[in-house]
Specification:
Strand content: 15-25%
Structural class: alpha/beta
Shape: globular
CATH architecture of the largest domain: 3-Layer(aba) Sandwich
Strand order of the largest sheet: 1-2-3-13-4-14-20-16-18
Oligomer: single chain
Radius of gyration: 24 Å
CATH class of the largest domain: Alpha Beta
Number of domains: 2
Number of helices: 11
Largest sheet: 9 strands, mixed
């Protein structure tokens, strides 16, 4: 009969046990977690839309020696280039020692996030109050967007082609906006409705003004607001027809908890992974073995369609150009490449255990979450990575002391979700999802663990640095 110590040894060898990351990291690494998250918090505060994230990414890249890619430009191992896709998505590459026929290492995240887009004819007045009509973007719980402070971000393109940048509400002292809700005293009928019906899409109208223009005419409050916009930005109401303006939550990024172990803010999904990719690409030590590619994609929240989404041929054109410079076949490059689809996953929330499957869902502070498949129900609408690919990630993550966990996204008949992974896999690229677990995903204010953020950065860097 074996003793307790021997049994414990056998149990440890044979059983799989996830461990809290704080039981695994050193004191020095805890300091590194804090340093990393200080930089990430700055990025998240400044990148409120995909356009702003791309602009920040380019500025950071150029400060580190990246050059805008021009078709036909000479490239050599160590060359750093980027491709700006219409100001809304970004692809960066560091050329490797090996030829592109041996494939490349790709990390792909998205920089769009759920928000409220202004309609093309948004401005109206009702009972001497001025409003913007909106059309929500991405999957949201509509009731979460009422009675929260909002900022306005975007661009207005004038008929002459001039682009006017608009940001209102970000800086201290600037006005903010809000969608009002019924007081509980008058909401008896509203509260009998389902959560999905209580606030409608057409009811997400943003309050923007109340003082009338001093002329005694019609729509005086609307005219007063339009006059302010004209004075500030030189625009007329017709210019809204060629504008991309969005209302986003006016929440500052902040530390959560007495222990300051978490970060709260808008847009963690998926800028938390986008920042990890960028930082990892910038921190590659010397010339990588294989070419490393970083994708900051747009339109993931609405299905990855459009010229700046991951279904677009823009990525293929960029890769074909890189391959052409080496007289390489892009198809051979793809079939030998590896893509880490760096997107967030749902973190187990003990307040709502009924929709989670605890043993297979991601836990806060347990590290980067690897999702073998996403999709919904019977693994529909997913790429489902091969076992060999999961084993490869296990190996390089363990070798580089990355705290990680394998996870799904809720109970089989409850959960599901999509990423860019299947669109990369459709290109014959070995692809798997991995990213940061998030509490309150798609809410105006999401929460992530600092440790998980840092481990996602370490995971991407490990993939980029693998020989």
């Amino acid at each position: 009969m074996t003793g307790k110590k021997e049994n414990d040894k056998i149990r440890k060898e044979l059983f799989y046990k996830r461990e809290n990351g704080y039981d695994l990291v050193t004191v020095d690494e805890r300091v590194a977690v804090e340093d990393y998250c200080t930089g990430y918090a700055r990025f998240l505060s400044d990148a409120r839309t995909e356009r702003e994230a791309v602009r920040l990414g380019i500025a950071e890249a150029e400060s580190r020696g990246f050059r805008e890619y021009r078709r036909g430009m000479a490239l050599k191992p160590g060359s750093k280039v980027y491709f700006n896709n219409r100001g809304k998505s970004l692809i960066l590459a560091v050329m490797g020692e090996k030829p592109l026929t041996e494939g490349c290492v790709i990390a792909g995240a998205h920089v769009d996030a759920p928000r409220l887009d202004l309609k093309q004819i948004p401005l109206y007045e009702s009972d001497e109050l001025a409003y913007f009509r909106t059309h929500y973007y991405g999957g949201i719980k509509k009731y979460q967007w009422v009675t929260v402070p909002l900022e306005l971000h975007g661009v207005v393109v004038l008929k002459n082609g001039k682009t006017v940048d608009v940001v209102v509400g970000r800086e201290p002292g600037e006005p903010r906006f809000v969608i009002t809700d019924l007081l509980p005293h008058l909401a008896q009928d509203q509260m009998k409705k389902t959560m999905a019906e209580g606030i409608t899409g057409e009811g997400l109208n943003i309050l923007i003004g109340s003082v009338p223009y001093d002329d005694g005419g019609k729509d005086r409050v609307k005219l007063a607001v339009m006059s302010i916009l004209n004075d500030e930005y030189g625009i007329t109401e017709e210019d809204f027809l060629s504008a991309e303006l969005a209302a986003v939550p006016a929440y500052d990024v902040c530390e959560i908890g007495f222990d300051r172990s978490m970060l709260g803010g808008y847009g963690h999904d998926d800028r938390v992974c986008a920042y990890a990719e960028l930082k990892a690409l910038f921190d590659i030590d010397g010339v990588p073995a294989r070419t490393c590619v970083c994708i900051l994609a747009d339109k993931e929240e609405t299905g990855s369609d459009g010229v700046s989404g991951m279904k677009s041929a823009a990525f293929d054109c960029f890769m074909e150009d890189l391959c052409a410079e080496q007289v390489a076949d892009v198809r051979r490059c793809y079939e030998n490449s590896f893509c880490l689809s760096a997107d967030v996953t749902a973190a187990f929330d003990p307040i709502y255990p009924e929709v989670f499957e605890k043993s297979n869902d991601a836990m806060i502070n347990y590290g980067m979450g690897i999702c073998k498949f996403t999709g919904a129900r019977g693994k529909y609408d997913t790429s489902d990575a091969a076992a060999e690919l999961v084993a490869y990630l296990r190996k390089i993550f363990d070798e580089n002391h990355v705290v990680w966990q394998l996870c799904e996204m809720g109970k089989v008949d409850k959960g599901g979700g999509g990423t860019i992974a299947k669109y990369m896999a459709d290109r014959n690229i070995n692809t798997i999802d991995a990213g940061v677990p998030v509490l309150s995903m798609h809410a105006p204010f999401e929460v992530v663990s600092k440790l998980d953020c840092y481990m996602t950065y370490k995971g991407v860097l490990a993939a980029y640095s693998d020989k």
